[in-house]
């Protein structure tokens, strides 16, 4: 339970702060927050790199730069905190923000383990008290195309989903993995299943609902990393649909793709890092009435998937004091599937939904101590570099953020 009383956000502007001032903060979070400047004031930013946070604040016209997170939370009392740091820091920073009374909007992946996610949930407020809550950035759920297809699937217009394919086949070279914290269990939490494919898997789960079992394989085929660089999985859903899931950083022809074959139509989304209505295709089964097929194609106003689309809903939920999408159990489900994928691959077993809990080695770390995948027993998990970058990088970035001092900056 969080430590402060819920705040009344119904009749004033929301005070926002940004944690981590790298590429994802500059390129996604800050523009989204700025677009909602009729409702949101960005009052502060935090980074362990003094020069970086001062530059970020100067460029973004943000009044208060900090290199001390606790001090920022105490002095500025933000209502909303955007967390844009590597996964290893997410739990600690999210819990600190929640306990200060702030809502959290945290970059994916949510954190490196289910155990850490459990501690985040424990720090949230309650539905009765109106929060605060921690939402994960799963912006691919939030676009007009996904909304339209979700509605068609939910009301049965397309018939039962039967077969699905979820593909995140991207390309990352050796320079990408030269960044010290990448490809390591301790600092990144996992490989492409965790850091790259999580967006498409989350969207698949959002469209098809709960999964029941998974059977997976992983490989370390090219890169000199602790984690995998490719994974494949077979997933059975509660509704009976069977899905294949492929996550790769070995694929020069890059694509993000979801295909769902239903009784009455095939739905397909093909894009890379974000989609609009034109990236969706619905192919009716033979014999479908033309008028009905035309209705399926009408997705309405084009609202691309984006941080902004998710943030709009989050701000509305904050003002209403209700739990937002991609928080709590809804935010946990993708991490649970990824954890099960790793357990299945590393133990050569079928893993069923709900079986990984406290006491299971995969509950606390995604390699689960598996031989050949866990870091060397004598060395232990590779430590996070002492001056690890705080910024989640751009998907195409190939180098690390600069080293960071840890001095305190007066507000």
* C-alpha end-to-end distance: 29 Å
Question: What is the structural class?
Answer: alpha/beta
Helix content: 25-40%
Instruction: Give the neighbour order of strands across the main sheet.
Output: 13-12-11-7-10-9-8-14
What does this protein structure show overall?
The chain is of the alpha/beta class. The chain has 13 helices and 14 strands. The strands form two sheets. An eight-stranded mixed beta sheet has the order 13-12-11-7-10-9-8-14. Strand 12 (265-271) and strand 13 form a beta hairpin. The longest helix has 20 residues, at 328-347. The chain is globular and about 60 Å long. 49% of the residues are buried. Mean pLDDT is 91; it is low at 377-411.
Layout of strands and helices, then pairs:
Blueprint: E1 14-19, H1 23-35, E2 40-46, H2 50-60, E3 64-66, H3 69-76, E4 80-83, H4 90-99, E5 103-106, H5 114-123, E6 134-136, H6 144-154, E7 161-171, H7 185-188, H8 192-195, H9 198-208, E8 211-219, E9 230-237, E10 242-248, E11 250-262, E12 265-271, E13 280-284, H10 290-297, H11 307-320, H12 328-347, E14 351-352, H13 361-364
Parallel strand pairs: 1-2, 1-4, 2-3, 4-5, 5-6, 7-10
Antiparallel strand pairs: 7-11, 8-9, 8-14, 9-10, 11-12, 12-13
Helix pairs in contact: 1-11, 4-5, 6-9, 9-12
Key features of this structure:
6-stranded parallel β-sheet; 411 residues; disordered C terminus; 14 strands; alpha/beta; 8-stranded mixed β-sheet; globular
